[in-house]
């Protein structure tokens, strides 16, 4: 589900869950636990690279699991999803995303939660189509996208709901640079190493927390009752299932 390799103090975390690393309850819990463990200032890891196994970084939330689980699953899953986002966003060490393929919805938010994003050139896309699915953003996801892109670009990307190829993603600020697939991981690891080597760990951690202080304070106060209710409604009224049918139909045509 999660593979972790530590090389020269760089912890490479690889999502390895199914064909497209879709986010379900168990993967979200595993991401949160892995990031909390790697955040230990006394541990051997100086910086983290997050990537995906196979052809996708993460294709986002496992919507089939949401539909099958209904309101009870939604009530358990959304806090776990938010926990994964927060654990990555709050991590006090340098974190670089190596976006090896599609990074959709929650996958895009995971990348946005990192300090730097390198995307593979090619056919992968990245974006946040939550509104097209028919569900609202969990509040942590909204704040992370706003932090990564700025308020204007975040509003445009979120309300448009499109997925973008690498060059467009670079122009929009969804990623910071592009790399050929065969050097993607090396580029991300070199960036993580440079960030960790060039700045004392305690200064980096404190400054990163300063940047995020207002956001984390807001997130600590927010409750998500309405978000959970609207996701449950999207299950019961069939809009999520309708989105999946449209998506599958478009892919086949």
Describe this structure in words.
With 253 residues, the protein is of the alpha/beta class. The chain has a single domain, classed as 2-enoyl-CoA Hydratase, Chain A, domain 1. 57% of the residues lie in helices and 16% in strands. The protein contains 11 helices and 10 strands. The strands form 2 sheets. It has a 6-stranded mixed β-sheet with strand order 1-2-3-5-7-10, with helices on both faces. A 4-stranded mixed β-sheet has the order 4-6-8-9. A hairpin with a 2-residue loop joins β1 and β2. α1 runs parallel beside α2, α2 crosses α5 and α2 packs antiparallel against α10.
What is the strand and helix layout of this fold?
Layout: E1 2-7, E2 10-15, H1 25-38, E3 47-52, E4 56-58, H2 63-90, E5 95-99, E6 102-104, H3 106-112, E7 116-120, E8 126-127, H4 130-133, H5 139-149, H6 151-160, E9 163-164, H7 166-172, E10 177-179, H8 184-198, H9 201-221, H10 225-236, H11 239-252
Short description:
Helix content is 57%, strand content 16%.
- Overall geometric form: globular
Helical stretch count? 11
> What is the CATH superfamily label?
2-enoyl-CoA Hydratase, Chain A, domain 1
Count the E strands. Answer: 10
Number of domains: 1
Q: Which terms would index this structure?
A:
253 residues, alpha/beta, 2-enoyl-CoA Hydratase, Chain A, domain 1, 6-stranded mixed β-sheet, 4-stranded mixed β-sheet, 11 helices, 57% helix, 16% strand
